[in-house]
Amino acid sequence: MSGDQQRAAERSVQQTLGHLRAIDGGPGEDPDRPLTLEDVYRQQRMRMVRLAILLVDEPATAEDVVQEAFTGLYRNWSGLRDSRAAIGYLRTAVVNGSRSVLRRRKTARDYQPPHQTDARSAESLAMLSAEHRAVVDALSGLPRRQREVLVLRYYGDLSEVEIAEATGVSRGTVKSTASRALDALQKAMGTG
């Protein structure tokens, strides 16, 4: 894939997931005030659910993953270095929970032909143009790690270092995975 094609794929992913991030809104809290668990839940719950939906493709499963992440956060709240670390904790818990769901799903489907599910909410799909839907559908077909890296980068708006921390891989792996993911996405969308 040429550099221009890869940049075009990157722009498509960035626009689509940036659009979803804008719909969800960013945290509007005072950065100097310590967060309570209730604040974190109110500000981050839907954003974490949307992140999980992008990773597992099923709203109900995504809700379960996020609920488990918040349960873990509640159990470990007193052990956090500061309340701002809660968001990183949640993000990592959602990624790891999504991985577990996908592993269980793969095991359950080993002897069955795979099928495509499009269980995203009607609300989220209605807000996306046809081009954006094509990008989200192409993301669904990527291998787990590639999807995670692109979703965390363009929806989560995380740096390579933050993605590496959330996924448990090196920064170099994040960079190379993102490049391969953009190549694969371009091919899946038929523009490569």
TrEMBL record:
InterPro entries in the cross-refs: RNA_pol_sigma-70-like, RNA_pol_sigma-70_dom, RNA_pol_sigma-E_actinobac, RNA_pol_sigma70_r2, RNA_pol_sigma70_r4_t2, RNA_pol_sigma_r2, RNA_pol_sigma_r3/r4-like, WH-like_DNA-bd_sf
Keyword annotations of the record: DNA-binding, Sigma factor, Transcription, Transcription regulation
GO BP annotation list: DNA-templated transcription initiation
Region (Disordered): 1-35
RNA polymerase sigma factor 70 region 4 type domain location: 133-185
Pfam family, one: Sigma70_r4_2
PANTHER family for this protein: ECF RNA POLYMERASE SIGMA FACTOR SIGM, RNA POLYMERASE ECF-TYPE SIGMA FACTO
NCBIfam families with a match to the protein in the record: SigE-fam_strep, sigma70-ECF
Entry similarity comment: Belongs to the sigma-70 factor family. ECF subfamily.
Protein name: SigE family RNA polymerase sigma factor
